[in-house]
C-alpha cells in the first residue's frame, strides 16, 4: 500500500489538469443507468468522490443510495477539545447536511463501523452494498489502491458486491500522492459537471466543516483537508476508474494489448533463468510460502499458468497426480522438460492464454506472476475460465509482484483486484510490500473445515 502524509503539500493540483489521467479520460454522462449506489469509507468521501454525479442522478429523479461505512471518529485522534464520540456525532450531522444538498431524497445508510477498522468487516460491507443494488444500477466506490486502508477495504467489498454490474472507482487520496504523467489513464471515465452540479458539490463539501477547517486553534485540531488538496475536487469533471483497472503505482493500466510471444522470445535470449528463479533467495522464499499455502496435501489434476523454466513446477509435481504446465513461448518449456524428465505425470505445453485455454477440470490452478502480462479484458476472461475449469472443491492460487514494471499492462494489485470479482471465495491472503498471494476455493472451505477440525 502507498504511504503518505496528509499534512504534506502533495501533488500540485494544477499538474493534474495537464496530465493524461485527466485529459485522457473518456467522457460519459451516466444517462444509461437507472439508479446510483455510492459506497465510501468516511463522511465527506461521498462528496469528494462523486458529489456531482450524485446531484445529477437526483436532478433526474433517479434513485440514489449513499452507504458510508465508518463513523468518522478517527480523523482527529489527538484532538484536545473533541472526543471521538463527539466527532462521530458531528460528522454524522455534516454527512446528512451534505447529502441533503446533493440529493434530498437519497437513501443514506450509515453503518457506523470503527474509523480505521474496516479490514475485518468485509462481509458486512459486501452485504450492505449488494442489498441496495438493483438492475440498471451504477455502483461507485472509493478506489482499490487509493492509499488509505479504509478506502481500499470499501473498494474491495464493492468489487465483490458488484455481481457484474458496472462499478466505477473514485480516487481521492491518489490526487495527493500520485505522479501526473507517470502512466496514461486511458481507461478513466470523466463526468463533465454542469454549473449547478459543481455548485451543489461545493456547498456539500463546505458542510463537512470538521474536515476542512480547524476544530480549534490548538495542536491536534488542525484541518484535515487543505485548500490545496480540495482544489482537486473543484474541477469541472469527476474522474473514475473501472474496477480492476486501478494501478498501485498511481494510474490506470495502459490500454495496450497483452504482452506478446515476441516479447518473451526476446526476453529469454538473456538465458535459461532470466528471472533468477534458481538463484534468488526472494524467489525461493516466495515459492515456499506458496507451497505452504496450498490447503491440501495432494491434488488430483493441476494446471500451472505461465510455468516458465519449471522451477515452481518441480515443487508442485510432488503434490499432484497429474500436472499440466503452460507457457507462451517454447524456450523455457524446453528447460522445464529437461528439469522434469523423470516425472511422466507432468506435461508441458506452449499455449497463449486465455485464447488457447486447455480442456479439462482441475482441482488446482496456479497463477503465479503472469496475470499482469495481460490486458484487463484478457485478464477477466482468464479469471472466468479459471472459475469454470475448477472442480466443485477446486483451488485457485494467485501470486504477483506488487512493484510497478513499466512494460507490464497491469500491476499485481490490479490483478488481485480483478480476482476479487471472480466469485471464488477467498480462504487465505498473504500480503507483503513485495508480493501478494491469495488462495481461493470453489467451496470456500478452510483447511480446518476441510479436515474436520472446525
UniProtKB/TrEMBL annotation:
Gene Ontology MF annotations: hydrolase activity, acting on carbon-nitrogen (but not peptide) bonds, in linear amides; S-adenosylmethionine-dependent methyltransferase activity
Assigned keywords, A-Z: Zinc
Domain of life where this protein originates: Bacteria
Compositionally biased intervals (Polar residues): 72-85
Region span, Disordered: 69-88
Keyword Zinc: yes
GO BP of this protein: glycoside metabolic process; oligosaccharide biosynthetic process
Protein known as: SAM-dependent methyltransferase
Amino acid at each position: 500500500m502507498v504511504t503518505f502524509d496528509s499534512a504534506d503539500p502533495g501533488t500540485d493540483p494544477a499538474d493534474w489538469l495537464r496530465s493524461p489521467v485527466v485529459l485522457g479520460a473518456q467522457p460519459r454522462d451516466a444517462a444509461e443507468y437507472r439508479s446510483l449506489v455510492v459506497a465510501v469509507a468516511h463522511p465527506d468521501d461521498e462528496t469528494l468522490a462523486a458529489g456531482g454525479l450524485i446531484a445529477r442522478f437526483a436532478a433526474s429523479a433517479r434513485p440514489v443510495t449513499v452507504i458510508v461505512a465508518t463513523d468518522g471518529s478517527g480523523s482527529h485522534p489527538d484532538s484536545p477539545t473533541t472526543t471521538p464520540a463527539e466527532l462521530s456525532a458531528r460528522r454524522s450531522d455534516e454527512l446528512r447536511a451534505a447529502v441533503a444538498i446533493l440529493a434530498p431524497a437519497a437513501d443514506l445508510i450509515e453503518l457506523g463501523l470503527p474509523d480505521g477498522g474496516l479490514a475485518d468487516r468485509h462481509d458486512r460491507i459486501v452485504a450492505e452494498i449488494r442489498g441496495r443494488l438493483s438492475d440498471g444500477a451504477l455502483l461507485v466506490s472509493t478506489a482499490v489502491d487509493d492509499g488509505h486502508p479504509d478506502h481500499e477495504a470499501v473498494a474491495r467489498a464493492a468489487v465483490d458486491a458488484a455481481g457484474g454490474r458496472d462499478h466505477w472507482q473514485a480516487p481521492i487520496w491518489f490526487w495527493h500522492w500520485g505522479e501526473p504523467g507517470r502512466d496514461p489513464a486511458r481507461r478513466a471515465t470523466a463526468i463533465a459537471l454542469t454549473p449547478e452540479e459543481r455548485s451543489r458539490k461545493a456547498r456539500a463539501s463546505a458542510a463537512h466543516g470538521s474536515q476542512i477547517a480547524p476544530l480549534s486553534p490548538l495542536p491536534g485540531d488542525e484541518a484535515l483537508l487543505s485548500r490545496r488538496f480540495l482544489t482537486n475536487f473543484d474541477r469541472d469533471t469527476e474522474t473514475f476508474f473501472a474496477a480492476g483497472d486501478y494501478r498501485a503505482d498511481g494510474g490506470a493500466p495502459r490500454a495496450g494489448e497483452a504482452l506478446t510471444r515476441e516479447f518473451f522470445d526476446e526476453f529469454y535470449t538473456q538465458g535459461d533463468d532470466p528471472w533468477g528463479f534458481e538463484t534468488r533467495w526472494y524467489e525461493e522464499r516466495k515459492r515456499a510460502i506458496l507451497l505452504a499455502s496450498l490447503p491440501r496435501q495432494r491434488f488430483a489434476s493441476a494446471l500451472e499458468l505461465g510455468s516458465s523454466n519449471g522451477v515452481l513446477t518441480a515443487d508442485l509435481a510432488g503434490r499432484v497426480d497429474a500436472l499440466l504446465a503452460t507457457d507462451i513461448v517454447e524456450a523455457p518449456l524446453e528447460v522445464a522438460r529437461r528439469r522434469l524428465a523423470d516425472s511422466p505425470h507432468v506435461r508441458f505445453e506452449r499455449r497463449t492464454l486465455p485464447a488457447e485455454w486447455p480442456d479439462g477440470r482441475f482441482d488446482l490452478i496456479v497463477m503465479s506472476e503472469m496475470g499482469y502480462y495481460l490486458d484487463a479484458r484478457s485478464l477477466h476472461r482468464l479469471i472466468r475460465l479459471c472459475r469454470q475449469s475448477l472442480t466443485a472443491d477446486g483451488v485457485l492460487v494467485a501470486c504477483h509482484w506488487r512493484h510497478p514494471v513499466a512494460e507490464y499492462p497491469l500491476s499485481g494489485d490490479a490483478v488481485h483486484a480483478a480476482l476479487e470479482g471472480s466469485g471464488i471465495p477467498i480462504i487465505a491472503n498473504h500480503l507483503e510490500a513485495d508480493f501478494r498471494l491469495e488462495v481461493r476455493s470453489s467451496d470456500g472451505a478452510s483447511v480446518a473445515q476441510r479436515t474436520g477440525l472446525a
